[in-house]
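User: I'm putting together a teaching handout on how multi-component assemblies are represented. Below are the sequence lines for each component of a complex, exactly as they appear in our records. Could you produce the 3D structure of the whole assembly as structure tokens, so the students can see both representations side by side? Please keep the chain order the same as the input.
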Amino acid sequence: MAISLSHVRFNYPDHPDRPVLNIPSWIISPGEQVFVHGPSGGGKSTLLNLISGMLPASNGHISILGQRLDQMTSRQRDQFRAGHIGYVFQQFNLIPYLDAIDNICLANHFSRGEKKPSLHDEIKTILSTLNILSDDWHTPTGRLSIGQQQRIAIARALINRPQVLIADEPTSSLDQKNRDSFMTLLMSTATNHNMTLLFVSHDLSLSRYFSRVEPLSDINQIEFMS
Amino acid sequence: MLIKLALKSLMNRKGSVLLSLLAMTVSIFVLLGVEHIRHQAKESFSKTVSGVDLIVGARTGSLNLLLYSVFRIGAPTNNISWKTFKEIASGSNIKWAIPISLGDSHKGYRVLGTTEDYFRFFSYGKQHRLRFTQGSAFSQLFDVVLGSEVARQLGYRLGDELVLSHGLASTSFSLHDDRPFKVVGILAPTGTPVDQTLHVSLQGIEAIHIDWRQGVKIPNSTITREQLEKMRLEPKAITAFMLGLKSRMVTFRVQREINNYRQEPLLAILPGVALSELWQTMAILEKILLLVSALVFVAALLGLSAMLLASIRERSREIQLLRVIGAPPGMVFVLIEMEALLITIVSIISGAGILLLCLATTQDYLMSHFGLYIGKNIFSASSLYLAAAIVAASILAAAIPSAQAFRKSIQIES
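Assistant: Of course. Below is the structure of the complete assembly, with chains in the same order as your input.
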């Protein structure tokens, strides 16, 4: 299984009596492309933070690619995330004062993977396949348009050849035209690299790109206590 | 990679970083400078004279005597008669005696009238004797031996002629221009006031004043050079003299005898004691200076820390992003420390650079006006320790913003 959660509960330490997530069981197979939608404040970000290992679960099992996140130390989770999970946010995916190449280098730096001598060539290949003009490779990313930045964000997420790609509202700051081209690019990239894609958004119109669509409320079976 | 990230991040905040850098540079410059001058001054002081057991002058304060006889600073209060000098110098415990006569100058450099014994017995530093780079000691009436700085600054060579002026001002109107002196020797650099001095024989001093009255030249002097050389010139008075004793054991006895000398009020001092006394009067000043410069540095460091802390607030997204791509919280801590360290190291380099520049430009001035020889080599063990302490202090000060960044990186916004 690519992602598998069972009996996962989560609450923030300052509010022990108010659980945010309660997931009895949820499984995503390798290569699946899943669209999860729900209103803001429904625990979407928390779910993604648990899966990426940014947050430790309070209870339950979380296993990603067959590895138990809940049994790892925080340092191990950091390394695992760097090596196996790509992440694309709504915005601020890149360090604005670094150029595209340095941003991608940095992502590679934190993964414990092989430090390949051909890193720069590989980055250039990825950037070219994602249709990013070579003129923009050495510009600080803060000076590029949002559309370009989101493309570079995909490239950044791809450099460590992750098996799982998490996208958290990546299209929300894009206009219609840019959104369509971004989605096409993302879907084809995920398919080409045979990556498991977990895509979270409140925008239901994007669900047409996905084979599996689930509302968060189906996954998160939280009973609200008064 | 982390250094590159820190560097680019600093470049991205040029304005505030540059100001912090300037503040740090200035404070480190002051700190290094004070430390360096403190050491050099102390060293320079203690090495100006050695091997001299007693310095004798007219009765005055011991510091005053030391200052005018050794450092050529200030004016002597009174003279000593030649007879007295002869009598004391012939004492049974005396190994050698060097008379000193001050009062004339050449272009702001003081002229010292003495005997050839000066070149044989006077020593400085760790018992270094004076050495000639060119020529030799004076033998003729109108011969002059130059200190290395005098020769260098005024561009004199062997055989050049120069004219002494009466009094100590650098632009004197009463010149001994009827009797020029010839350069016969140039001394090797010593790093002491000797470098700033012109040495002539006592007879020479006597000869140029022979037809002067009350500091004014009598016009239409008829005495020729040849006549002067034939005359038996004996000084009536000298300014001070230095004594070398046959045995160190009798130093205090000889000192007491001189201080109790009936014919004339005299004062004998031990140069080592007087030097440390002189240094003592400066010690408190020196400590205050060091304290003030350390406080300036602390202020700059706090400024740096505040600048970084403010930047953390704007960079919470950036820190978040670093965490997502796999940077552990410790790395975020190190990143902020690295930024502080980069600023500190650049500041140390530029501070030291400015200090070197300042030393190079003020060295001559300090030497000629204060008799202080401040070396240009600031890379001593103590300044390296100081630099290490600066780095350590900045790491400590940067721990505050770094810890803030660390905390930010472990709490995830939901």
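A couple of points students might notice: Residues 2-45+279-410 of chain B form one domain. Chain B has two domains: 2-45+279-410, 54-269.
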